[in-house]
């Protein structure tokens, strides 16, 4: 490959993975000891012809994304996704279009396809460099495909030899795809892949040889198959090593107009004095998780002396601790948190905090308890000098 056009990868990872069952959105679940998205990012970040990578994420998943991207994060352009895959791709195209070096070629890839390989990426790029405006990988189908009507009666049996199951990465001339997406949005055209967007705009789409191993993780069984492929033992060990961890954090009030509690911004007449965003709930919860796996404390992993954590959103600290547990094959069973302060009132925000912590950890809010108390006007919390939080975590690890 000796083209001169900048090549960008656009990875869509803003979906909720509802068909994959409970837990974190599928692109952040652990596969072979690492988040699914980390496998995808390695493939594109390590490819010598790919000059830029844009990942489209859900606004609520910033912490999970940073955890999955690891050292790659600083070199990745991010955008926030929309309600559909198509809207998420459009958001990524807008981000790439506004970047310092607008690409000539874009490879759109699902964040849920972790087995994308360099030969497949080479074929995608090669097709566009050969002069096509749109090229997508396809594999022959092995089942007979039928068209059915609303009553599930067969209306047609297409010739199987002409059918292809289409995968990603789908490769396009950047400007042509941007225009086609704009036209589709204007016309209200809704399709399930970007080839469809180009087809609607009248572009021919080339199908090149896909890779049967390049599966899209969609259902729980896909994860089991993917783990088997990576050699993970079929029967996971029982999670019967039950650990309890505790955490405590305190911050003094200072100038400001809100406090962060459990990832929720709560209006208040004061802020807190802190290196990060000073979220005592998330800090105590993070320490409780780290305590349960006896892996240091929040300061060990995120030293206050490191300028990267100045003003940082604390959800990434909790996501990191949760990932350490997941990497050990474990699971957070429960978090019980108590906030101590005279004000602000925590009760009205309890459910939002439980939901947000559940979202960060990939567990239901029924596994997160938030309690609050004053200290009866005694001590530093009673004098309204600051606020504190205590957390107890129950963690299940694989038995020895
Ligand atoms: N609004 C959306 C919907 C999907 N995607 C991404 O598009 C890819 C393919 O979509 P799909 O497998 O359908 O993912 P989900 O929408 O997350 O799954 P589900 O339909 O089961 O909820 C995934 O990487 C997903 O994260 C996206 O970026 N934005
Ligand atoms: C883009 C795609 O992966 C090609 O097969 C597919 O169309 C995505 O569909 P989904 O329902 O959004 O997973």
From TrEMBL:
Keyword DNA repair: no
Database matches in InterPro entries: IspD (IPR001228), IspD/F (IPR026596), IspD/TarI (IPR034683), ISPD_synthase_CS (IPR018294), MECDP_synthase (IPR003526), MECDP_synthase_CS (IPR020555), MECDP_synthase_sf (IPR036571), Nucleotide-diphossugar_trans (IPR029044)
Tagged with keyword Lyase: yes
CDD domains referenced in this protein's UniProt entry, alphabetically: CDP-ME_synthetase, MECDP_synthase
GO MF entries: 2-C-methyl-D-erythritol 2,4-cyclodiphosphate synthase activity; 2-C-methyl-D-erythritol 4-phosphate cytidylyltransferase activity; metal ion binding
PROSITE patterns per UniProt: ISPD, ISPF
Annotated region described as 2-C-methyl-D-erythritol 4-phosphate cytidylyltransferase, given as residue ranges: 1-242
Residue numbers marked as site, Transition state stabilizer: 19, 26, 275, 374
Reactions mediated catalytically: 4-CDP-2-C-methyl-D-erythritol 2-phosphate = 2-C-methyl-D-erythritol 2,4-cyclic diphosphate + CMP; 2-C-methyl-D-erythritol 4-phosphate + CTP + H(+) = 4-CDP-2-C-methyl-D-erythritol + diphosphate
E.C. number(s) listed in UniProt: 2.7.7.60, 4.6.1.12
Domain of life, source organism: Bacteria
Signal peptide (residue range): none
Cofactor(s) this protein cannot do without: a divalent metal cation
GO terms under biological process: isopentenyl diphosphate biosynthetic process, methylerythritol 4-phosphate pathway; terpenoid biosynthetic process
Keyword annotations of the record: Isoprene biosynthesis, Lyase, Metal-binding, Multifunctional enzyme, Nucleotidyltransferase, Transferase
Pathway entry: Isoprenoid biosynthesis; isopentenyl diphosphate biosynthesis via DXP pathway; isopentenyl diphosphate from 1-deoxy-D-xylulose 5-phosphate: step 2/6; Isoprenoid biosynthesis; isopentenyl diphosphate biosynthesis via DXP pathway; isopentenyl diphosphate from 1-deoxy-D-xylulose 5-phosphate: step 4/6
Residues that hold 4-CDP-2-C-methyl-D-erythritol 2-phosphate according to the record: 249-251, 275-276, 297-299, 373-376, 380, 383
Pfam families: IspD, YgbB
Annotated stretches, region: 2-C-methyl-D-erythritol 2,4-cyclodiphosphate synthase: 243-400
Site (Positions MEP for the nucleophilic attack): 160, 216
NCBIfam families (UniProt xref): ispD, ispF, PRK09382.1
Family per record: In the C-terminal section; belongs to the IspF family. In the N-terminal section; belongs to the IspD/TarI cytidylyltransferase family. IspD subfamily.
Functional note: Bifunctional enzyme that catalyzes the formation of 4-diphosphocytidyl-2-C-methyl-D-erythritol from CTP and 2-C-methyl-D-erythritol 4-phosphate (MEP) (IspD), and catalyzes the conversion of 4-diphosphocytidyl-2-C-methyl-D-erythritol 2-phosphate (CDP-ME2P) to 2-C-methyl-D-erythritol 2,4-cyclodiphosphate (ME-CPP) with a corresponding release of cytidine 5-monophosphate (CMP) (IspF).
Name assigned to this protein: Bifunctional enzyme IspD/IspF
Natural source organism: Phreatobacter aquaticus
Gene this protein is translated from: ispDF
């Amino acid at each position: 490959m000796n083209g001169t056009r900048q090549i960008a990868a656009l990875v869509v990872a803003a979906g909720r993975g509802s068909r994959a069952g409970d837990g974190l959105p599928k692109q952040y679940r652990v596969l072979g000891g690492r988040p699914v998205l980390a496998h995808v990012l390695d493939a594109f970040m390590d490819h010598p012809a790919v000059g830029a990578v844009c990942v489209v994420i859900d606004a609520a998943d910033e912490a999970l994304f940073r955890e999955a991207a690891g050292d790659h994060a600083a070199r990745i352009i991010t955008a926030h996704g929309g309600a559909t895959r198509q809207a998420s791709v459009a958001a990524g195209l807008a981000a790439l279009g506004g970047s310092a070096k607008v690409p000539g070629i874009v490879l759109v890839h699902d964040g849920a396809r972790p087995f994308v390989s360099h030969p497949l990426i080479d074929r995608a790029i090669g097709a566009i460099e050969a002069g096509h405006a749109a090229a997508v990988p396809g594999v022959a189908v092995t089942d007979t495909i039928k068209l059915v009507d609303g009553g599930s009666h067969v209306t047609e049996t297409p010739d199987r030899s002409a059918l292809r199951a289409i995968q990603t990465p789908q490769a396009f001339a950047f400007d042509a795809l941007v225009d086609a997406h704009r036209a589709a949005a204007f016309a209200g055209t809704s399709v399930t892949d970007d080839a469809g967007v180009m087809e609607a705009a009248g572009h021919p789409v080339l199908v090149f040889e896909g890779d049967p191993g390049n599966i899209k993780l969609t259902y729980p069984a896909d994860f089991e198959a993917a783990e088997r492929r990576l050699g993970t033992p079929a029967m996971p060990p029982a999670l019967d090593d039950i650990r309890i961890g505790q955490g405590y954090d305190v911050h003094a009030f200072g100038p400001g107009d809100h406090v962060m509690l459990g990832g929720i911004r709560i209006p208040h007449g004061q802020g807190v004095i802190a290196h990060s965003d000073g979220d005592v709930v998330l800090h105590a919860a993070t320490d409780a998780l780290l305590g349960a796996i006896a892996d240091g404390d929040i300061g060990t992993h995120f030293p206050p002396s490191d300028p990267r954590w100045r003003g940082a959103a604390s959800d990434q600290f909790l996501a990191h601790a949760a990932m350490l547990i997941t990497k050990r094959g474990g699971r957070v069973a429960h978090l019980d948190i108590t906030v101590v302060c005279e004000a602000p009132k925590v009760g009205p925000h309890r459910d939002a905090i439980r939901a947000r912590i559940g979202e960060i950890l990939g567990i239901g809010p029924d596994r997160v308890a938030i309690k609050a108390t004053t200290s009866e006007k005694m001590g530093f919390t009673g004098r309204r000098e600051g606020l504190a939080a205590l957390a107890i975590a129950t963690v299940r690890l694989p038995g020895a």
